[in-house]
Write a structure and sequence with these properties.
This protein has 401 residues and is an alpha/beta fold. It is built from 16 helices and 16 strands. It is 38% helix and 18% strand.
C-alpha cells in the first residue's frame, strides 16, 4: 500500500505513440485514464445533480474551483460541512485548481475574452493586461478588475462585490485543504496568450518558486498530506524551450502529478505537449488544464496526457448548442436554428445517452425557445455524456492495440 494518497498506474502504453491507458488511485475511488474531468466550478455541475453525473453521464471525477468556493460560500463553510464530497454530495474522486487562472481572468483580464488559446496572427489582440505586474490606478478602481501580482502572491478584488483579497501559494493550499478534494494544485501564475516572451519567462520562474512554497505548505499539514495529492503546473506559454525548462524544473519536485497550464495556439498544442510529456515522469499522471474539445483531447492523449477538464460542454449546452456525431467527427449543432422546430429525430442519431433515447431535437428546440430550464439540463447531460464517453472510447482503443 502506497504511503501517498494519490498514485498512478500505467496499464498500457500505445505502440508508436505517447498515448497510454492507466488508473489514478485516490481516496474516493479510481479514475480510469484517459478521462474527461467534469467541471463543477462552485461545487455543482450547472443544472445537474450528482446522481446525473454518475448514472446518466458516466463521469468518474469532478473538478471544483478554489477561487469561486473561497468567495462563495467560503472554504471554512465547506470544511465545516465535512469537505467537498460531503458538501456537494459528490461520491467520486475530486480535484480543485489553484485559483490562479480565475484570479487572472476575472481580475485584470475581466471582460477581455482571454482564453487558453491565442488568437491567430490576423486577429491577435495585444491586451494591455499582458504584463499583469504593472499597477494601474484606473484598473485598480474598476469594480472587480484589480489584479496585481508580486513575488509573494496576488492581490485581487472579487468579481462579485469588489472586496479585496490576497492569494499566496500558502493561502491557496490552505483553502484547498479546507475544501478537501482528493487532488489539489499548486498555485501558479497563468499568463495571457499574448504576453511577450520576457514576461512568460518571468511568470514561469515565479510559478516555479510558488510551486516549492506550495509543496512545503502541503507537507506542513500532516492531516491533509494523508488525504490529498498535489499537482504542480507546467507553464511557459507558446515557447517550447520554456515549456521544457518548466517541465524539467517541476519534474525534480515531489509532486504526485502534473498539470499543464497556460496558453497555447491551436497549431502548436500538440508539439508543446510532446516536449513537456517527454520530460515529465512516466509514472505520474498529467492533466491538461482547461482544454477539452474533442480534437484537443485526441491531440492531448496522443502526446501523453491522461486527464482533461473544460467548461465547454455545459457552457454551450446552456446556449442551446449540442454535440452531434457526423462523418467528419463531432460537431456543434445550435438548436435555435429554424429547421429544428419540427425535427422529430434524435438530438444525436449516433448517441445512446438518456436524452437521445427519450427526446427529440424539436422538443429540445422548444425548451430553449420558450426559455425552459429543462433545456439546459438535458443538453448538459447529452454534451457531458458525449465528451466523457468519447474519451473512454479512446482508452478502449489504446487497450485493444
Amino acid at each position: 500500500m502506497s504511503s501517498t494518497p494519490v498514485t498512478f498506474e500505467v496499464i498500457k502504453n500505445q505502440p508508436g505513440s505517447m498515448a497510454r491507458a492507466g488508473v489514478i488511485h485516490t481516496p474516493h475511488g479510481d479514475i480510469e485514464t484517459p478521462a474527461f474531468v467534469t467541471v463543477g466550478t462552485k461545487g455543482t455541475v450547472k443544472s445537474l445533480k450528482p446522481e446525473d453525473l454518475t448514472e446518466l453521464v458516466g463521469a468518474e471525477v469532478a473538478l471544483a474551483n478554489t477561487y469561486h468556493l473561497f468567495l462563495q460560500p467560503g472554504d471554512e463553510v465547506v470544511k465545516a460541512a465535512g469537505g467537498l464530497h460531503s458538501f456537494s454530495n459528490w461520491n467520486m474522486p475530486t480535484m480543485t485548481d489553484s485559483g490562479g487562472f480565475q484570479v487572472f481572468s476575472l481580475g485584470a483580464a475581466f471582460g477581455k475574452g482571454v482564453t487558453k488559446f491565442a488568437k491567430d496572427a490576423a486577429g491577435a489582440e495585444k491586451e494591455a493586461a499582458a504584463g499583469l505586474n504593472v499597477y494601474s490606478r484606473e484598473l485598480a478602481t474598476q469594480h472587480g478588475k484589480l489584479c496585481v501580482i508580486d513575488e509573494e502572491g496576488v492581490t485581487f478584488t472579487s468579481h462579485i462585490d469588489g472586496s479585496m483579497h490576497r492569494f499566496t501559494p500558502e493561502r491557496s493550499i490552505d483553502i484547498q485543504h479546507n475544501i478537501g478534494a482528493d487532488i489539489i494544485i499548486a498555485f501558479d501564475e497563468c499568463t495571457s496568450p499574448t504576453a511577450e516572451r520576457e514576461y512568460q519567462k518571468e511568470a514561469m520562474d515565479r510559478t516555479h518558486r510558488w510551486a516549492k512554497r506550495s509543496i512545503l505548505a502541503h507537507k506542513q499539514n500532516y492531516d491533509a498530506l494523508k488525504k490529498q495529492g498535489i499537482y504542480g503546473v507546467v507553464q511557459g506559454g507558446r515557447h517550447l524551450d520554456l515549456r521544457q525548462e518548466s517541465a524539467a524544473t517541476l519534474a525534480a519536485m515531489d509532486f504526485d502529478g502534473f498539470g499543464i497550464g497556460g496558453s497555447f495556439s491551436k497549431e502548436d498544442l500538440g508539439e508543446s505537449l510532446k516536449v513537456v510529456n517527454a520530460i515529465l515522469p512516466a509514472d505520474k499522471p498529467r492533466h491538461l488544464l482547461g482544454i477539452g474539445e474533442p480534437e484537443d483531447i485526441t491531440a492531448g492523449v496522443t502526446m501523453g496526457c491522461d486527464t482533461f477538464d473544460c467548461v465547454a460542454p455545459t457552457r454551450i449546452a446552456r446556449n442551446a448548442t449540442i454535440y452531434e456525431h457526423t462523418n467528419e467527427g463531432i460537431k456543434k449543432t445550435n438548436l435555435l436554428n429554424q429547421k429544428f422546430i419540427r425535427d422529430l429525430g434524435k438530438p444525436d442519431e449516433a448517441c445512446s445517452c438518456y436524452v437521445c433515447q427519450n427526446y427529440t431535437k424539436a422538443y429540445l428546440a422548444h425548451l430553449f425557445r420558450s426559455q425552459e430550464m429543462l433545456g439546459a439540463h438535458l443538453a448538459s447531460i447529452h454534451n457531458l455524456y458525449t465528451i466523457v464517453n468519447f474519451t473512454k472510447k479512446i482508452r478502449e482503443q489504446i487497450l485493444l492495440k
